[in-house]
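USER: If only I could read backbone structure tokens as easily as an amino acid sequence. It would mean a lot if you studied the pair and described how this chain folds. Here is the record:
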Amino acid sequence: MAANVEKQQGHRPGIYKQKNKGHKHGKHRTKGEVDRENKGRVSVMALTKKQRKEQNKMDRRNKANQLRRNKKDLVLAEKRRLGSRDGPPHLVAVVSLHAEVDAGVVTRLLRGEGAGGVVHQEQFVSGVSDSFGMILPRFKQRFIFLRTSSADMHSLLDVAKIADSLLFVLDSSEGWDAYGDYCLSCLFAQGLPSHALVCQGVSDLPVKKRVESRRALSKITEIRFPDARLFPLDSEQDATLLLRHLGSQRQRKLGFRSRRSHLLAQYATFTPNSPSEGSSGGPTGLGTLCVSGYVRGRPLRVDRLVHISGHGDFQLSQVDAPSDPLPLNLTNRPAKPGKGGDVDMVDGGEAEAPVRVLMKADPSCRESLQAEAEVDPMEGEQTWPTESELLEAEEARKKKRVIKVPKGTSDYQATWIVDEDEDDNGDEDEESSDDEDDMLDEPMDGEDEDNNSQEPGSDYGSEDEEEEEEVCSTERTGTDQRYDEHMDEAAEEEGLKRYREARANEIFPDEVDTPLDVAARIRFQRYRGLKSFRSSPWDPMENLPLNYSRIFQFQSFERTRRRILAEAAAEEEGAMVGWYVTLHIIDVPISVMESVQSGRPLMLVSLLPHEQKMSVMHLLVRRHPSNTVPIKSKEELVFHCGFRRFRASPIFSQHTSADKHKMERFLRPDAPTVVSLYAPITFPPAGVLLFKQRNDGVQDLVATGSLLSCDPQRIMLKRIVLSGHPFKINRRSAVARYMFFNRDDIMWFKPVELRTKWGRRGHIKEALGTHGHMKCVFDNQLRSQDTVLMNLYKRVYPRWTYDPYVPLPLPWVKGEDPVEMDDLNME
């Protein structure tokens, strides 16, 4: 009976069953979860006081006081070093920023007796006539003043690189003119040291107008110098206040000069090499240049190379320690190494005084001048020719070539006549191997072609042309003739062509036309397609040019830079900062001494290790607002990079964080651009200036920026875009034409992906016929106004056109606008 009893079913809660909330445990893990995750590992439960580096209140206060005291001592030591007997004299360059301002009046006031200084020599800097050394016993400081002509841009930039302070002389009403603003743009881009502003003529104004004049001038200077102080300089009392300000103002540190030893030549002599030393000793020979000056920046070592700005790299033979021509203590005192007591100066040089040799260069430890790596042609993969190949080459050399020549032609003349078939083949090879694919070389409108297509002997339009010529000749006036005399027609045509190319590249970026007479697979055989520009691989060591065997490469440039700069900062050997030394530079051309005799200042800088070697340098620049002329890639430019000045033909590329970078055909005005070129290695930071030299010798500022890196493996890809027109559309498939003109080209580029201007993606499915029609499939339906595009890429390299010798820019003429560009019509 019990078996017949039905089993009672369990209770099932309904929808109204009460549900209590779970415990809010703070989202933290339980002890069990922590144990399961640690898997038996036991962590440190507590740290000792020593490990936690806990300090009580008194220890923390003492530590803060020590840090504060150390920083204060460093600042005071730097200040004493710059202005006292232990440091070099304070170098001040006087620069005029207006054509109507005379900077010589400023220097005369500063060297006056009322300023309280003791002038030791009227021409203190070699080659600079208006330069003098001054000692201020009242302030326990010494100065070197030199007046730099702003007309010579190279000298102005070189002096600004090593000057401690720049003294800008402004006009009391306008401040600076157009050329002065141009000079300021170059100086700010290079790196501006400490500076002061001076104006004259304020005391000549009525008392009521002086405040208004200074207020108006201060409003003008706030644009460039928001925190600078304006000093009137009309009396000797004003000169004393200015000297006090120059000696006590805070010095700006420029990274590219504070890490290198540099020197301004106070005195220079040249001794030609004897004939036994391998030089003629004549005007074109080499010799030893002895340069005396104060060591600045870092200690100078005799085994390091020195770079003379504008002339090249050289080696040192020895360093001497003559007497200091500008001693701070006017009484006789024991001389330190590189220091001396009073010295009587004679016109043009130093007085006879005992000179002590500080150090001599060891040939085994001295750095080499080798700038390029030795190229061994046997390093490549080669196979020796067999005997049969040698016999075939000998028979081919002996085989006579029959060429039709004019009657009476000699055998010697016949060797210079090239066969027509060979000439055609050579032209095709040269065209196929050309590195530059000029885009849209044909004129955009057909007016020129229509005019040139007329036969020379036809009379059509001849009367109209003669009548038009007569009208033009009668309308020309004397003013127009004088204006046309200064017009360079070749430069105008070249500028117009560059403008049209830049505009065509802006409207149709990287688009090229497929040639009709050459197969596309031959014309574009160096290009390849990429599935993804960002993620597709590209071997950086693939098919490198021959010039890459001449350069040097670092395994890690950034690690090497940090190590070398750290060693330079801890350098304690050599001629210390502030010593007055004489450097013996060997194998210097006599042109360096001729430059000094012409009145140009001479600057020397000690190079860091590896900075004389050639490599691929990359500069990050931005186009200057004053430049409006398009700058094409591989166009020769003048570079000011750190202390160096040279010419090169760079290539432009985009500044991205990817491993591949697209080449730019023109310097973009709206974005930063990376400039790549073959140049000597320079460790950043360093300012960069780019100039474009016109045909008349004027150099225009094109771009400014800084040094980026040294990386020969940076991949820069040149892109070309082949375009086609869809003329039969059926949903996702379409028939395109005008991209290729034969069947073989379509089959060759079939694996390359297609895209359209409206964002569709697809590929070539098959070729239709033999005239370049192809069937394409896309991810969505095409529109009739869309354009089919194909991207092709090849790696590009800079041209080896490095030239360390830059011609002097054309001197500035008063009243001429230095930044005036060619006014060409863009339409």
Q: What stands out?
A: Residues 613-713+797-822 form a domain with the Elongation Factor Tu (Ef-tu); domain 3 fold (CATH 2.40.30.10). Residues 57-83 form the longest helix (27 residues).
